[in-house]
C-alpha cells in the first residue's frame, strides 16, 4: 500500500477472446524468508508482482516468482497468469472426473477407476 503510484504500470500480457488482457501492476525485487530458514543463509531476491487495478481500493492479487532479475515485467505477468489458467484447468478436470474431493500426499490427486453398474 505504501509503494508509490509511479511504480505501477499498465501491462498487457496476451490477447483475449474479445480484447487484450491487461492490468495495472508493480514488480519489485524482494527476498522472502521463513522461520525455518538458516540464519547464516541469505535468501536470494525474488520478484513480487502486485496487481492493483485503478478501480479497486486495494491490490487484488500478488505473485512471487524466482525468475531472473532481468525478466521483463510483461513476461513475468504472462507466466503468472498462465499458471493461474493451468491451475483452473486442473481443478475443472478433477471436478469433471468426480475427483474434486480427493487429495493425496503433497496435494497429488488420487486417480480412481469409476465403477460401472
TrEMBL record:
PANTHER family: TRANSPOSASE. It comes from Paraburkholderia piptadeniae. One of its GO terms (molecular function) is transposase activity. It holds the Pfam family DDE_Tnp_1. SUPFAM superfamilies: Ribonuclease H-like. The lineage of its organism: Bacteria, Pseudomonadati, Pseudomonadota, Betaproteobacteria, Burkholderiales. This is Transposase. Residues 33-102 form the Transposase IS4-like domain. One of its GO terms (biological process) is DNA transposition. It comes from the Bacteria. InterPro entries: IS701-like (IPR039365), RNaseH-like_sf (IPR012337), Transposase_11 (IPR002559).
Amino acid at each position: 500500500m505504501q509503494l508509490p503510484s509511479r511504480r505501477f504500470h499498465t501491462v498487457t500480457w496476451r490477447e483475449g477472446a474479445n480484447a487484450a488482457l491487461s492490468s495495472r501492476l508493480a514488480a519489485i525485487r524482494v527476498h522472502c524468508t521463513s522461520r525455518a530458514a538458516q540464519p547464516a543463509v541469505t535468501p536470494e531476491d525474488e520478484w513480487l508482482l502486485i496487481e492493483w487495478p485503478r478501480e479497486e481500493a486495494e491490490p487484488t492479487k500478488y505473485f512471487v516468482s524466482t525468475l531472473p532479475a532481468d525478466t521483463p515485467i510483461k513476461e513475468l505477468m504472462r507466466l503468472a497468469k498462465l499458471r493461474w489458467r493451468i491451475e483452473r484447468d486442473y481443478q475443472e478436470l478433477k471436478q469433471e472426473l468426480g475427483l474434486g474431493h480427493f487429495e493425496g500426499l503433497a496435494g497429488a490427486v488420487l486417480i480412481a477407476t469409476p465403477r460401472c453398474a
